[in-house]
Amino acid sequence: MYHPGVGSSDSVVDKFTGGLFGVGLDQAIREVYNFICTNYVDGDDIILIGFSRGAFTARSVADMIATVGLLTPSGLDHFYAIFEDYENMGDSDRDPSLFLDPKVLPYNGEKGAARANWEMDRKSQYERWLSKNGLTRHTYEDANGVHEINIKAVGVWDTVGALGIPPAPVFSNTQVSDRVENAFHALSLDEPRFAFRPALWEKLEGNKTNLRQVWFPGNHAGVGGGWHEQQIASITLAWMCDQLSSVGVEFNPGRMSDIFTEGLRFSAGHPFSYVPSSWSSWLRPRQQLPWANPKICPVKASSIHRDEAECDGKDRHPAGGAEELWKTARPWGLGQIRYPTSRLQTWSGTTIRHPGTFMRTDPETNQDTDQPLLNTNERIHSSVRVRLACQGLAMDDDGVWDCKALATADDGSGLWKLERGSGLNASEADSVKDGKTRKLDLDAEGDVLKPYPVQKEDSQWKWVLASKHPNAFPLAGVLPEEPLTGYWERKLLALTAGNPDVWRWAEENPPFGLI
């Protein structure tokens, strides 16, 4: 089940209320959860997918299933009361007598990790009470025995929550539940809005969820999809499809090829697509720059002609084979990334997202604490390194992209530095080595484009925390580069690698003068 999220429709009212204040989150969670309860058939796989606050909805529904199970018909009669209990499960100020369970675990002033454990224990106790009273179930039985009802996978793009603007629904899903077997999260490095701070998952000790959170270039809508220029969104889509393929989800090869080809054709027709003027452009006119260094993009600045308006959405883009489209299209990883167009949503301030340094949030104040998130398993996508090596452009094509999110701390000092060598641990490296593309008749009839031949020694990179950095803590000393081994990622790369091949060029000419 995919949920697009409130604030993502074309309605101006929805964009304002849902997009800015998160209005509608609780209703969306109720609707999705109720749909699953009433339609689940024993043995079904539960897979939840969403973007933005739709991602928050998907995660909250997964957490609610893990917390209260699937309500029985009797439980559905008490749906709103149970939902209100779940919504306030982490609220330490709520009177325990207001819960359906009269003996719900009270709050005794726990802080940090102890508070997270208190909340998990409270959820477990509440679920047991619901089960005892016949209001929910966490298992089903068939001829082979009793089976747990788990969430097969949750796949999300750039989760943002209640935006830090009260009043807002209170949901506690920072800690991924052990009942979620697989959790996949695509994150944007360049989203500047403070109100759109990302809600990363963390794993508490003993949790066996297969968690993977990967950072990509671009802002919130660039990673999740929303601009006419879809190249980065196609990269995140291919990555997510590979993650979901690993748990049994199948994708239509023809439709996937169409999506990838449409993106390449758009780029070929709009290599310098429209960028809105900002107030600062009156003071400092934007210099037109080639979209990569001269060895990748031989276009002279004097010959650049930028679109004067947004694409109208009508398909007049160039046709032809990949090599013909490469003559004007921006290749893989170098697509345009955009600055948010809504100035209203920057009123609460701007920030720089720094991978590997996120802290737990106080559920009562929505402010960061001094407790780092545990076991986030963050990785950096290889498109980051390729964009840096090829000197791709910053947001709105305003200068060369330097990835401040990784390279520079808020005080101006170095934060993460790129080094050769795998950052994966032994078990992760073995899983990559042993991984094989599932045989699904993946190559559509007549499709001669084969997946890109990524070499065994490729992607042997890692981002290492700068020594003695004041924000350093031992929980995330290395951020591995995410290995590019999946079928759909390599299919997209084969279609958009360009000439010269940017993947191979970046391997041979790494950024920061590395050799």
TrEMBL record:
Taxonomic source organism: Colletotrichum costaricense
TM region positions: none
Domain T6SS Phospholipase effector Tle1-like catalytic: 1-243
Annotated stretches, region: Disordered: 353-372
Pfam annotation, one family: T6SS_Tle1-like_cat
Protein name, as recorded: Peptidoglycan binding domain-containing protein
